[in-house]
Amino acid sequence: MVPDRAIAHFPDCRWRPAAAHRPAMSAAWWQWVASCDSLTARLVAAADGRAFRVKLLDQRLGQPRLDEALALGLPQRQVAWLRQVALCVDERPWVVARSVAPLAQLRGQRLERLGERSLGSWLFRQPGLKRSPIDVSADAAPFTTGDLPCHGPWGRRSVFRHGDFAVLVQEFFLDTMADELALPPR
Questions:
Q1: pTM here?
Q2: Rounded to an integer, what is the distance from CA 95 to the centroid of its chain?
Q3: E strand or H helix at 89, and its extent?
Q4: Separate counts of helices (H) and strands (E) for the chain
Q5: Mean pLDDT for each 10-residue chunk of the chain (186 residues)?
Q6: Which residues are bridge partners to 157 per DSSP?
Q7: What is the pLDDT of residues 90-104, one digit of tens each?
Q8: Whole-number Å distance between alpha carbons of 145 and 26
Q9: Domain segments of the chain: what residues?
């Protein structure tokens, strides 16, 4: 379980286009990793009536990592809105996500008020929403939360654009999800 006061640490990952990982990925994982619909909606459906919760781990202004700034076309050292959440079923994290949005583009979006609601619940209601191609990481241990190492076979990320607003969303699928859904290990 993710501790309440834990802040997830996401080390740099090697990101490649999803198609580059397709040969190494089972069909069951491909349906999760390459889907372009709302991950929150998919997780709620997969939970099959069990309690689903978005657990806010951290939300603040800060500097994105270099790979995040490059993905958003931001100059180095520019401050951005950073948000980290765990998407949990029965209080067990299935996915950990990190979102990064340029501070200059946040005006009027009110994302700081999301609290423990999913960013996807807001994003997928925006008219004209565009999503960049999905990049995938096969790093086995993408992050830790406090003293708790969390592992997962796949991570994915893409940039969502709505008018002048852009947000990079990175989602890491965890072994707890794979175990619950009987997904093959990579």
A1: 0.89
A2: 7
A3: strand 80-89
A4: 6, 11
A5: 46 86 94 95 95 93 91 90 93 92 78 87 89 88 57 91 92 91 86
A6: 135, 170
A7: 999 999 999 999 987
A8: 28
A9: 8-181
- C-alpha to C-alpha distances, 182 to 46, 63, 116, 176, nearest whole angstrom: 11, 37, 27, 10
Q: Which tokens hold the place of 153?
A: 């076979």
- H or E segment to which residue 31 belongs: helix 27-33
Which conformational region is residue 49 in: left (phi greater than 0), alpha (psi within -120 to 50 degrees), or beta? Answer: left
Contacts by residues 108-115 (CB-CB < 8 Å, ≥ 24 positions apart): 109/165, 111/81, 111/83, 112/59, 112/81, 114/59, 114/83, 115/56
**The listed CATH number (3.40.1410.10, 3.40.309.10, 2.40.30.20, 3.10.580.10) that belongs to domain 8-181:** 3.40.1410.10
Burial class (CB in 10 A: 0-12, 13-18, 19+), 67: middle
Contact between residue 123 and residue 129 where contact means Cβ atoms under 8 Å apart? yes
Residues 131, 162: Cα–Cα separation, whole Å: 9
Grouping H, G, I as helix, E, B as strand and the rest as coil, residue 106 is coil
Structure tokens at 45: 């459906």
The length of the chain, given as a count of residues: 186
d(CA 93, CA 174): 7
* Token couple for 68: 């995040």
Q: Which residues pair with 99 in a beta bridge?
A: 83, 169
The residue written with tokens 């006061």 in the block is 5
